[in-house]
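Subject: sequence -> structure tokens, single chain

Hey, anyone have a minute? Need the predicted structure for the following. Not urgent.
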Amino acid sequence: SACRDGCSALGMKLFSNSPSFAVTPVWLPEGVDWSAFNKSLKNKNGITVAAGQDDFKGKIFRISHLGFYDELDMLTVIGGIERALKEIKFAFEVGAGVSAVQKAFLGK
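Reply:
Had a minute. Here:
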């Protein structure tokens, strides 16, 4: 739930109401360009997420939870998403996503 909590705290809507242990699909916020967002994530933050496919291309992105993936990885991913969103001028409270992830891990 930490990933879902972090994304929600940034004002992003989750694609599904049924959580998955393998992946978290998230709607791109209104007005956010997938190419600019993804470029910032990859080039400036070293983070790779999967794009939406078919009808959802450019509308959602998917965060994978497969393989070796720990709490610090999740903090890094959500922090990188915050940085990418800030770079492309999306309005949100900086630190809200990372704080939500920390609270989920600490059980608060």
